[in-house]
Specification:
four-stranded antiparallel beta sheet, Arc Repressor Mutant, subunit A, 12 strands, alpha+beta, transcription regulation, 2 domains, 280 residues, AraC family transcriptional regulator, DNA-binding, Homeodomain-like_sf, Jelly Rolls, RmlC-like_jellyroll
């Protein structure tokens, strides 16, 4: 191919996670019964348990826990697990079951997160309110309900990642995602050169038709849409940091000025000249 590619870039994972597909199947608050238990099963969905009161046990893989009030547990899909109520005061917990996919990969195969996080006491009412809203909107039928559900789940997951600290991407275990990472890095490094779907598909060792579908599942855009958006982002930086005029910036990307100006306005809502004036 004659053009090199560098290693994975964090920005790709930000974009991929932002475009992940999520679905909440159930959400509620439950005071579990003494008979609440199951042993060594592997669910095909994720579970979040926010413990507010009581005692019991959870087992995730080979790790065993006795959760305490104020702890938020993530029991990932595809992992063997067990749970049960202890004698005495059983758990009271907010909980939900959900799936989350980054491209074609389940989120737990992409992110290396802890089994639980300790929620600071000052943050617990806010998190409990998020779970309550999640349960409320999950039971509604308005067109806006699905957006509300997505918003609340993402808010809870974001809090989990922030409280977990040091979350890492499992790039070695995400083969398909690693290929997309490679492709997007290549695009970023060659934005000023002609780029074709066939060339990008060959880089990922995919058939072009399959590549287009996989690329859109991962980024939310077709390859051409993504390339054009990145070129506009690069152009915005050039307008903000250099004295290059519109024609010179268009030339950087091998575009006719009329096409470049139309693309820039379609993407930003401003003509290049308006954007530069607004920036200054």
């Amino acid at each position: 191919m004659g053009r090199g590619v560098n290693a994975a870039r964090p920005a790709f994972w930000h974009e991929a996670i932002a475009n992940m597909r999520v679905d909440v199947s159930v959400a509620a608050y439950t005071k579990v019964s003494p008979s609440w238990r199951d042993t060594d099963y592997t669910p095909d969905f994720n579970k979040l348990y926010f413990i507010l009161e009581g005692t019991g046990y959870l087992k995730i893989g080979d790790a065993e826990y006795e959760p305490a009030p104020g702890q938020l547990f993530w029991m990932p899909q595809g992992v063997r697990q067990s749970y049960g109520a202890a004698e005495g005061e059983p758990f009271g917990k907010h909980w939900c079951h959900f799936t989350a996919y980054v491209g074609d990969e389940p989120l737990p195969r992409v992110l290396d997160v802890p089994d639980f996080v300790d929620v600071p006491e000052a943050e617990r009412p806010r998190l409990a309110a998020s779970f309550e809203r999640l349960a409320y909107w999950r039971g509604r039928t308005e067109l806006s309900a699905a957006m509300r559900v997505r918003s609340e789940l993402l808010s809870i997951l974001a809090a989990y990642l922030e409280l977990g600290g040091g979350t890492k991407v499992r790039t070695a275990r995400s083969g398909a995602m690693a290929k997309m990472d490679l492709v997007l890095r290549f695009i970023d490094e060659h934005l000023t050169e002609p780029l074709s779907v066939e060339e990008l598909a060959a880089l990922a060792h995919y058939h072009p038709n399959y590549f287009i579908r996989s690329f859109k599942r991962t980024t939310g855009f077709s390859p051409i849409q993504y390339i054009n958006r990145q070129r506009v982002e690069r152009a915005k930086r050039l307008f903000a940091t250099t004295e290059l005029n519109v024609s010179e910036v268009a030339d950087r990307f091998g575009m006719e000025i009329s096409y470049f100006s139309r693309l820039f306005k379609e993407t930003t809502g401003f003509t290049p000249s308006q954007y530069r004036e607004w920036m200054t």
